Amino acid sequence: MTVLWTAADAAAATGGQIAGYWQAKGICIDSRSVAKGDLFVALSAARDGHDFVADALARGAVAALVARIPEGVDPARLLIVADVMDGLRALGAAGRARTQARVIAVTGSVGKTTVKEMLRAALSPQGRTHAAEASFNNHWGVPITLARMPADTEYAVIEIGMNHPGEIAPLARLARPHVAIVTTVAPAHLEAFGVIEGIAHEKAAIFEGLEPGGTALAHADIGTAAILFDKAKACGATLIRFGVTEGVEARLVEAQVAEAATVIRAEILGTDRLLRIGAPGRHYAMNALIALTAAKVAGADATQAALALSGWTPFQGRGTREKITLSAADDLVIEMIDDAFNANPASIAAALDMLAASEPQGRGRRIAVLGDMLELGPTGPALHAAIAEHPAMARIATVHTVGPLMEHLYAALPGALRGQHASSAEEMAANLPQTLRSGDVLLIKGSKGIKVARVVDALRKLGQSAAYQGQGPR
What we know:
Layout: E1 5-6, H1 7-14, E2 17-18, E3 23-24, E4 26-28, E5 38-41, H2 53-58, E6 63-66, E7 78-80, H3 84-97, E8 102-107, H4 112-123, E9 129-131, H5 141-147, E10 155-159, H6 168-175, E11 179-182, H7 190-193, H8 196-204, E12 215-219, H9 225-234, E13 238-243, E14 250-257, E15 262-268, E16 271-277, H10 282-297, H11 302-309, E17 320-327, E18 332-339, H12 345-357, E19 366-371, H13 380-386, E20 398-402, H14 406-412, E21 418-422, H15 425-431, E22 441-445, H16 453-462, E23 464-467
Helix pairs in contact: 3-5, 4-10, 4-11, 8-9, 10-11, 13-14, 15-16
Binding site for ATP: 108-114
Family: Belongs to the MurCDEF family. MurF subfamily.
Subcellular location: Cytoplasm
């Protein structure tokens, strides 16, 4: 691995003090996951990162970014700054400034991580591509992503998220994208914003970070589209509208959803495009349209990008599909859709559509396990109950619910659809397996805080899992 930061370069970027020479090949904020050659950043949140500097150095870190000298640590292995978070932001800004990369920033209530990963897949064959790990999209995740960016990067994809007003604009200005995307605006984090228009204004703030002459991609099919369009124009951006609406610059013409793939026909900036992705779902079709449009605007070859996207599949917790043998003796094999990473009304609807498009085997059924959608504020109970009206429910046999908010959905469901209700994921994990039969297709979806991923883990531990992630015939 090449050198990412020398001691002198890092000190110049942060205005910090050094007393020794070192070369960092990576950056880490968790002492438990330090790789040899990392610069450990001693952030303070629930715990003070300075307490873990010695451990990080012992595990292979070459140096640590600190605001004080921890007891017993050699100052020659430290980069000392006035404030660690400010130092990390400065390192991120310097990482962005030293590269000639075409930078794409993406936010949105739903789909931002998927679009980021699609862009990584689409762009990597065409140039050195750098993208955020996992969901590194907050006040420390964005600067870490930028600070980790090699100087010779040609394409960079930066995910930007938010929980409260005023978070996106500073991160967008730090990233300085050439292309900025708002995937969609949906009821998420309503607890902090009150109304969906507030969410739209916050998401639109990503356009404030655009480089001069930059391009804004905005969803045309949503009720708050005008807020996004007006913001893009106010920021002097070139606006590209996407969606199914007639007349937009990037239009999803058709999405043919099969059990293990989606075939997409689109019109992008005046050119007809046909592509296939290895996952079923109309929401994936829209995400692919966004990614392919952004790749083209960033200067990549759209045909090559479309070919590369054909190899994309969802990753764990984001719609991964796998077969699990729960009992070899009884030949009890189920198919599980692991979408347990997060949830809001829009992503729940997309997940239910994906379940409805699935084809159970033999006497199998379509079954949903839905956990609470969090951070919806006073509208939470009504938004949970409204899931019962989703058209996909007509093709689903049973809905199990987890958590106090999902009790509102449970009460709204017709009796024939009601499965079990559990107060916790652990309770559901203990009771669910004995209700399943061979051929069932099981969707597991919920906000991260309700921990329905524990249901996923419990099922995997019960049987032997064979992940196929929607790739081709089974």
